[in-house]
Amino acid sequence: MSWSLPAWVRNLDQSSLEAWLRQEEAPRLEELWAAADLVRRERVGDEVHRRGLVEISNHCVRRCAYCGIRAANSQVARYRMEPEEILACARQARAFGYGTVVLQSGEDQAHTTQWVAELVRRIAGETGLAITLSLGERPARDYEVWREAGADRYLLRVETTDPVLFARIHPGYPGREPRLAILRHLRGLGYEVGSGVMIGIPGQSYASLSRDLLLFRELDLDMIGVGPYIPHPDTPLGVDGHPDFPDAPDGGQVPNTEGMTYKTVALTRLVRPDANIPSTTALATLNTEQGRELGLRRGANIVMPNLTPPAYRVLYEIYPGKACVSETAAQCALCLDGRIQAIGRVPGTGPGWRPGHEPDRR
To answer: Which of 18, 56, 237, 290 has its CA 20 to 30 A from that of 360?
Structure first.
């Protein structure tokens, strides 16, 4: 190998992480990109695993201050997909060669424990795909039932681990600790566990984001999603000037930029070398030409092609201007495979487990 990891990679602490987040010199950033890409290649390989996303409902009981499908947003046309529609999407995922289907929704109380369990059983039995759930916070028993039914992974983003900022953007919620406890409970049930944060939320400091990175290491997360905060006009944070959500003081506000997102992706790879890290749709929204590709070159190894039928997809507007909302699932599959191959990477086969941590398939 012509390039080896510099010593600083092995000694990342809060101070050095914060310094890298503030770094703007192009030669130093090239060093960061190279380190992240090398660690990615050595620890998870050149395969880019494709996880087919199905946004099964945009109903939500939460009032998160940043999210376009929050309960208080009366401008949203609500929908729920029927089980047969969801199964049709899972069949497409298998036909396209994806290894995983991801079922995502708001916190929809109409989706009962048994409704989800039966859906998981049918998908697992018919397709053999790995199944990831991202359905928000539920009673502990639900996670147990869904694991027994065949769910393999669970995604629950914390968005920020700063307790003050967490409380500000999650009104009426008791704090971050219950969510962290759920992540630990999921681990105990044998799920692959995923979480992540937004970058550039008003009030997010560099110190706060560096602590988020350290928490990824502490929790030993299998999957980590980091993406830019994109304001939605029909939310409290989307109000011009967002007076109730002040920026971090004294020049310490993290910007919600493409460049800051790449830095966070790269540092996430360095603090959690064998985690699965997506190059997100939000990155593609900021840079439609090469946002996903640059994310993959700077530490990411996952993409999440959207299988949601376009008529529903346009209504799952957690932030505005999402990339690819008008594409069919087939168009999305063809486009992403071409983008992966164009940068010298390989579309992944199989579920794409975290290396050495394959869960027990129940």
So the answer is: 56
What value does the mean pLDDT of the chain take? 95
Three-class DSSP category at 212? helix
CB 251 within 8 A of CB 196: no
Q: Is the dihedral of CA 54, 144, 109, 67 positive or negative?
A: negative
pLDDT digits (tens, 9 = 90+) for 123-153: 999 999 999 999 999 999 999 999 999 999 9
Q: What is the topology classification, in CATH, of domain 34-347?
A: TIM Barrel (3.20.20)
Q: What's residue 1's pLDDT?
A: 40
Extended beta strands in 126-278, E state: 130-134, 153-155, 192-199, 223-228
157, 154, 254: which is closest to 196 by C-alpha? 157
CA 267, CA 254: separation in Å to the nearest integer?
15
* Strand-pair partners of 52: 101
With cut-offs at 50, 70 and 90, classify the pLDDT of residue 2. very low
Task: Retrieve residue 42's tokens.
Answer: 């050595």
Dihedral over Cα of 152, 57, 84, 86: its sign: negative
Residues in the chain: 362
pTM for the whole structure = 0.96
DSSP class per residue in 81-108: --HHHHHHHHHHHHHTT-SEEEEEES--
Rg (CA), the chain: 19
- Joined together, the tokens standing for residue 357 give 């941590």
Q: How far is CA 173 from CA 55, 61, 165, 169, 268, in A?
A: 24, 12, 12, 9, 27
pLDDT 10s digits, 67-105 = 999 999 999 999 999 999 999 999 999 999 999 999 999
Residues 29 and 23: their CA atoms lie apart, in Å, by 7
Residue matched to tokens 């998981």: 120
What separation in angstroms does the CA of 229 have from each of 121, 255, 260, 346?
35, 9, 11, 29
Name the nearest CA neighbour of 283 among 223, 216, 226, 347. 226
* Count of C-beta atoms within a 10 Å radius of residue 295: 28
